[in-house]
Batch of 2 targets.
Target 1
Amino acid sequence: MLEPTISLTDEQITFFHKNGYLAIECLTTATEISRLRGVYDRLFSEQAGREEGNQYDLAGTDEDDKPLSLPQIVNPVNYAPELKDILLKANARAVAQQLLGPPVEAQGEFAIMKPPQLGAPAPWHQDESYWKEELEYNSVSIWVPLQEATLENGCMQFIPGSHKGDVLPHHPIGHDPRVHGLEVDECDPSTAVACPLPAGGATIHHCRTLHYTGPNRSSQMRRAYVHTFAAAFVKRSQPRDFYWQKQRRTARDERRRQAGTVSTSAGTA
Ligand code: NI
C-alpha cells in the first residue's frame, strides 16, 4: 500500500465541519492523473460493467441504442486492478480519516463521466438519498477531476451548511421512473458555491451536503473519479422511508436482475 503524502490543516478541517464541503488544490501527482486518465477512458470505451448493471446512465433512460448523457461506473477498480494501489486513494483515505476520525471503511468508488457537449447536469441532491434507509451514515466523498474542472464542463457546486439537516425528499430526475439519478424535491441554490479545480485537485463533501454539477458545454470529456469513505455503519433506531428509491424502474436494475448481480455495498449510487 502506498503511504499518504498529504494532510489537512486544522483550518481546513474546521471549514469542512462548518460548511459540509472543502476544496483542495492537489490530491495526487500530474503523472498519476495522466495514467489514470488512460485507464478511465478505456473502461468507458469498453463499456466495462454495463452487462451486470455496474455501468449505467445516471441522468437518462439508459437504453442500449442511445448515447449516455451521464455514464457512471460503480467500483471501476473491479474492472481495472491497476486502480487498486494508487496515491489518489491513499490520500483520499487519509483525508477521510482526518475528517471522520479513524478508522474509516471504503464505501465505494465511482467514475462519473460527462461526455462533451451532451453531458447532462447532475441535479441538486444529497448522496445519502441513494443509500439504505435503515442505516445511519457518516460518510465523505472525495471527488477528483482527471482534467481541469470548470463551470463550463461541470465542476462541483455546494450549498454551504446543508449537511446539518436530514435527508430531504427526492425524486427520480425529471420525475421519470426510468432514470436512476435522483433530484431533491426543493432547494434554494442562491447561496451555492462553485468549486473549479485543477486536474488532480479534489472536493470533499459530507453525505448530506446538497451538491450539483452543471452540463458539460465544453468540447472535452469531463472525467470525475470519486471515493466514498464511511465511519462505521450503524443500524438506525428511527426508521425512515426513502420512497423515491422504490419508484424507480430502470434499465440498469433489469440488467442486474438478468445478470444476478448482488449488491454488496452499503452505499453505492
Ligand atoms: Ni452526488
Note: The CA atoms of residues 3 and 90 lie 6 Å apart.
Target 2
Amino acid sequence: MRLVLLGPPGVGKGTQATRLGAHFGVPHISTGEMFREALSQKTPLGLAAKKYMDAGKLVPDDVTIGLVRERLGRPDSSRGFVLDGFPRNLVQARALEDVLRDVGTRLDAAVSIEAGEETVVRRLSGRRQCRQCGAVYHVEFNPPPEPGKCPVCGGALYQRDDDREETVRERLRVYAVETEPVIEFYRRKGMLVAVDGERDIDEVTASIISALKEGNAVEESVPDGDM
Ligand code: AP5
Ligand code: MG
Ligand code: ZN
C-alpha cells in the first residue's frame, strides 16, 4: 500500500498515518517528524529547517524532496509507505511522481482528511507529544492516563513550538495557498479519497480503511485521453 495523507495542520494526519502504517505493515514517513528529529539532534538539516518551521513556512523544496527521495530509497519503503506531510505543494507532488517512477512504482491513493478550521485549532491547542518516542496525545480528545507523561515510554510530553497561535495562523494560510492545489492534482488523476475528519479517531481510521477497500480511488479514475 502506497498512500499519501493530505489535510490541514492538526486534522489528524500523524495520528491516522501511525495507525494505517501499523494496519498495512508499512512505514509511516512524516517529513515534519524527520525535521523535528533532526532538530533534536542539532544536525545541519534540523537547524536549517527550524527557522521555517518556527515561522510556519515550508522548508525549501530541494531540501525536502532530497530527504524524501533518500527515505523512499531505503529497503523498508519497497513494501509500501504512508506519507504524512508530503507532498505539500505542486512541485513536491510532481517530484514524488518522478521518484516513484524511477523505482518503477506509483501511489495507490491520496487520502484527504477534511475538517473545519475551528476543529483543527482545538486539536492543535490541546496536542501534547512525547519528547522521547514521538507519540501524540490530546489533553481532551486522547488524554494520557497520567498528565504530562507518555504511557508508552515514560517520556515527558511537550507542546510543539509551532503550535503557538501566530504560527498556527500562518500554517493554515500556507496550507490554503500551497497545499490545497495538491488535493485538486490528485482529484484530477482519479486518486483522491476524501474522508470526514470531524469524527473521532477510531471512526476516521475505519472510514479510511473501508474507502480504500472499496477501491473508490481506482474506480473513479478516468484514463487520460481514452474517454
Ligand atoms: P508537520 O509536522 O507535517 O505539521 P502539520 O502538517 O502542520 O500537521 P500537524 O502535525 O500539526 O497535524 P496532524 O494533521 O499530523 O495532526 P495530529 O495527528 O498530530 O509539519 C511541520 C512543519 O514542518 C511545517 O510547518 C513545515 O515548516 C515543515 N514541513 C513538514 N513537511 C514539509 C514539506 N513536505 N515541505 C516543506 N516543509 C515541510 O493531531 C492533532 C491533535 O488532534 C493531536 O493532539 C491528536 O491527538 C488530536 N486528534 C487527531 N485526530 C483526532 C480526532 N479524529 N478527534 C479528536 N482529536 C484528534
Ligand atoms: Mg503531524
Ligand atoms: Zn513516549
Note: Residues 217-227 have pLDDT under 50 and may be disordered.
